[in-house]
Amino acid sequence: MPNPFTYSENEREKIVKEQKKQIKSVYKEASDEIKKEVKKLKGKNNVSANERRNYLKSLQKEINSYMKNVDTKTEKIINGNVDKMISIVFENNNQFVNSLGFNFDITNTVIKKEMVNRIMSGSLYQGKWNLNKAIWGDNKAKQIEISKIISKGILKNKGLYDISKDLERYVNPNARKSYSWSNMFPGSRKKVDYNAQRLARTTISHAYQESFVRATINNPFIDAYRWITSGGHNVCTLCLDRETVDHYGLGPGIYPKDKLPLDHPNGMCTFESIISMSDEEIIDAVADWYLGEGDEDMNERIEKFVNDLKNF
Ligand SMILES: [Zn+2]
Distance, CA 7 to ligand 1 centroid (Å)? Predict the structure, then answer.
């Protein structure tokens, strides 16, 4: 049987790609506006220390407000994409289940809501982490970095315009910041949208994984899952280990359904269902269950699966 979740996997890749652009463009918009503000300060390099402080104060306030807007939008983008990802996986599962010979419509609004909530509220991480906190924590970090760029500029007695140009560069998602930037502003990020992008990608990855497991864990025809790395370049040793080592005596990279580990931040790995029965055997089993014949244990498992689906 070909991987029944290929569709979801492809959609996941599309969402991740699109999301990256969405977030980048939110940063770019803000950066363009800030650029306009900075332009107004051209020729004002030699203002008095007092004036410089006042100008910088108001510029800082404005940049912070733009960044607040950026983070509000980023959170909304991720939220929308989580919703989309989960819907796609469940929809895909519906089709898969129907292809196995079950014939009913599954409306999964309740479980979908539950799933979105599980991802967004952080209950997936036992409350130790949640997206909202992470985004606003990062907003705070940006504010601190912005403030440090200003104080460093003043310390080095840079002109008003030069300090503003540093700020402009900081918020530009397309600016290339080299070693000298980190030297001048230690601890300041090289890519302004890096953290947002990492949070976004990780959240989609976990939304995919969680909904995939939720949709399939009770499916009696799926025996286990196989870990699959994104392949080729940049695969870390942890993921390579997950793909190649036989951790449970089921074969290399194969996990019992309740033992699939959560991918790490920025992870791009995926999973496959292991189905040992042939299409024909599955269809026969479904028919037996329907008629109340055949293997009792299998019928019980199908019953449980169907009841779970109905509760979707
Ligand atoms: Zn990895």
Answer: 23
Q: Going edge to edge, which strands form the sheet with 224-228?
A: 254-255, 224-228, 270-274
Q: Which helix (H) or strand (E) holds 226?
A: strand 224-228
Distance 234 CA to ligand 1 centre (A): 8
Decide: 203 and 124 in contact? Cβ < 8 Å. no
Rounded distance, CA 261 to CA 255, Å? Answer: 9
| Residue position matching structure tokens 């008629």 | 291
Token code pair at residue 119:
């991802």
First-to-last C-alpha distance (Å) of the chain: 25
The pLDDT of residue 41: 96
Q: Does the pLDDT of residue 211 top 80, yes or no? A: yes
DSSP helix/strand/coil, 19: helix
Q: How far is the CA of 267 from the centre of ligand 1 (A)?
A: 5
Q: Where are the alpha helices (DSSP H) in the chain?
A: 6-39, 49-99, 109-121, 131-155, 160-171, 179-184, 194-216, 237-244, 279-291, 296-310
Please, which pLDDT band fits residue 117 given cuts at 50, 70 and 90? confident
Residue length, the chain?
312
Q: How far is the CA of 241 from the centre of ligand 1 (A)?
A: 9
Residue-wise DSSP of 56-88: HHHHHHHHHHHHHHHHHHHHHHHHHHHHHHHHH
**Which candidate, 181, 84, 189, 200, places its Cα nearest to that of 134?**
200
pTM, two decimal places: 0.91
Q: For residue 311, what pLDDT is reported? A: 65
| CB atoms closer than 10 angstroms to residue 17 | 10
Distance, in Å, from the CA atom of 9 to the CA atom of 267, rounded to the nearest integer, reads 14
The structure tokens 């994409």 sit at 81
Q: What is the largest CA-CA distance in the chain?
A: 91
CA of 240 to the centre of ligand 1 (A): 7
Q: Side chain identity at 235, as an amino acid letter?
A: V
